Amino acid sequence: MPLLALGFVALVLGMAGGLARLGLPMEPQAAAAYHGALMVGGFFGTVIALERAVALGALWAYAAPLAAGVGALFLLVGRQAAGAGLLLLASVLLAAATLAVLARQRALFTVTLSLGALAWAAGNVLWLLGAPIATAVPWWIGFFVLTIAAERLELNRLLPPKPRAKALFVAIAALLLLGIGASLAWPQAGVLVLAAALAAMAVWLAINDIARRTVKGRGLPRYVAVSLLSGYAWLLAGALAIAAAGGLAGAGPLYDAALHAILLGFVFSMVFGHAPIIFPAVLRISIPYTAWLYAPLALLHVTLALRWAGDFGASPALAQAGA
Q: 171, 193 in Cβ contact below 8 A?
């Protein structure tokens, strides 16, 4: 599918940009400058918006992944204003599509999905207006965490959380949004509140997700559960790294460790875990289970652990090895 291909172009070149930021010779140079935006908006924005368009079944909703993919291409040729504008358009369209889903089905997970989409749009507004990437990052983190948490709520409908657990989820999500919003006026305090909410969300998901039970099974259910539970561990680790750093200052090894624990360890673990479920629905193909599915998941964890060792041990060589 051409729209998904645009997302994978952003993924490959965004990863190249990440390697370039670690000092490895990679092209194009713009990929290094816009590494975060390419990964968040160009790849994940395209994929998530495409999934939402398929779920909604409305032709106009496909404009969101198209805008995200084309926006990434503009960034790659150094056209930041055009690229950021298209990513903002993509996020607004995603929010509109998600609100349309909410209008059809009023549930906790659709409300949470909507808040996640709006968080992405808010972060994109800040970036388009010239704010540093570090200012938009808490909003982008909120986009991922709320979106993934909402999808887990939806997929756990066979074993829904009890009323008290639901109330706690709402409180954690509210705390997360409070921290993100407060980060605009009080960057350090707001991000520390966000870190507390991220840690609480990681624990909540680990306790209430059906993965805690299916991990004892076999085959695909066990693989999905291992992916999810390991992702929650990285989310908790990222929250603790933010707390250790005293916030998200926008540079330094702890900043690198925190961001990659959440946006790489947590998010990509979710991708690996959900891929056998979501990609067949989007691409109309089947992904048969094989034990080889564990290989990329294990590689993710090993390389990220090396990166963390490099960050906390002040060893650029280890960080490069973990890239």
A: no
